[in-house]
Structures are given as structure tokens and as C-alpha cells.
Amino acid sequence: MAVVVRTDDDCRLWADRAGAGPPLVFCHGGPGLWDHLEPVARLLEADARTIRWDQRGCGRSQRRGPYTTARFVADLNAVREQLGGPRVALLGHSWGAHLALRYALDHPDRVSHLIYVSGTGIDPDRGWHPHYERNLRRRLGAHRDRWEALGARDRTPAEEREWAVLQWSADFADPDAALRHAEAMATPWRGVNRECNRAVNAEVKRELRESDLAARCEALDLPVLIVDGAEDIRPRWAVDSLHRALPNCARVSLAGTGHLPWVEDPDGFRQAVTSFLTPP
Hints:
The protein is of the alpha/beta class. It has twelve helices and eight strands. It comes from Micromonospora humi. This is Proline iminopeptidase.
């Protein structure tokens, strides 16, 4: 059921809730995209009350800033408070994994479990990024020339969607299904908020250089599950230092999957998450 969440600065956020059970709040990737985690919610709604939302300025939420990590953490707190209750589990994907981690560090008493899916770690030098760029171009294969041509110029809305679909296709391990999966992600197309993307990415880079997230993670006293797609083009060793820093952390790598592991191994993904949320 779709609902509206109002933040403390009166920004309207689109949200959706479904299922029954303990509350599980999702944080989608981007930054600057919209919620793409409905398939994950459908996998888990028999075991949890799933709560999804479009981050501010994105998708169906009101298009206004400011676009800062602190503001997104506060927005997530409004979603949690109005739809989830006093304590929730969090599942974040990609940029959303960093947002969920930051929320847990700022508000550990309001989080029961943290599921960190396909994040890129906390290393300040972001040494994974050159590897990602090389892997991206390699996996694009025959689509690389078109992707580079679109990326080098101003794009029409239709070309922006085409460029995104080509880039997102590299996030899947199976080349025969990659474009189909990427098309599904882009349908319906809600547009990328480039201002949000630039602002938040720049701030995260500064934060990783200037703050000691590893020390804060070492003090985080709640269970964390890291879920990786073994064939994600973002090298998974980028997450190793986060794994080492967290005192209560399990890690699952799903073979034959990329950046969205639930798409290519839904059963394995569901098993990993439900076993973590409801241990024997």
C-alpha cells in the first residue's frame, strides 16, 4: 500500500508497505535513483513487514534538497518512525547499504539487524573504483561503443534511459539475460536526479577520507549480514575492511550473481536473509 511520509522539513516522500511480521525497511541504491527493491520485498514479505521508499528528490518523492547524507539519515528516521516503529531491521543496497550503515551508526538503538547488500566498503582511498571501471567496460562487450558515445554528449530523455540500461546491464553476471534485467530495472523510467548523485557521491568520498568509520563500526553492537554477488563488477575485497571492523558480522557470497544478487539467485538471497533475521 502506497503512503506519504512527511519529513521534519516537510518534504513528501513516497513509501510503500506490505506483508506482516517484524518491520524491515529498505534503502535503495543510487544516489539519485528510485526504489527498485520491490522484487526483494516480494521475496521477503511472508516473513517481514516490508517498507520501501523513494529517497528525496528521486522517483515519486518530492524533488527538493538538500542532498546530504545527514538529510537522508533524517529522512530514513522519519520513515522508520512513521511506518516501522521504535526498532526496525534495515536492508540497504549499493549506495543504500552505506546509508543504512550510517543510520545504524547514528541510531543503533533503533536498529535490530542490518543487511548490507552489494555495498562498496569504507576504505578512504576508494581503491576499488579503477577495478570497477575496467570490469564495467569489459562486461559491456559489444555495447561498449554505444555506451561511450552516449556518455560523451548531452542526452535526450530517451537516450538517458538507453545509456542507463546499457550501464546497468553490466551489473548482471549472465550476459544472455543482462539487457532484459536492466530493462526491467528501467521500467517504468523515473529519471535520474544527477544533482543528487553528484552531491551525495562527493560527500561520501569526503566522509570516507575525513572520518574514522572503521572505529565507529568496531563499536556497533548489532548483528550485520553482508551479502555479495560473487561476480559483481565492483570488487568484493573493497568490503573486507568493513567486515573485519564489525564485531558481529556474517557474510554470504552468492555464486553466479552480480550487483543485484536477488535477481539471479532469488532462492539463495531469500534463504540468506530470512536465516539471518529469524535464526533457529
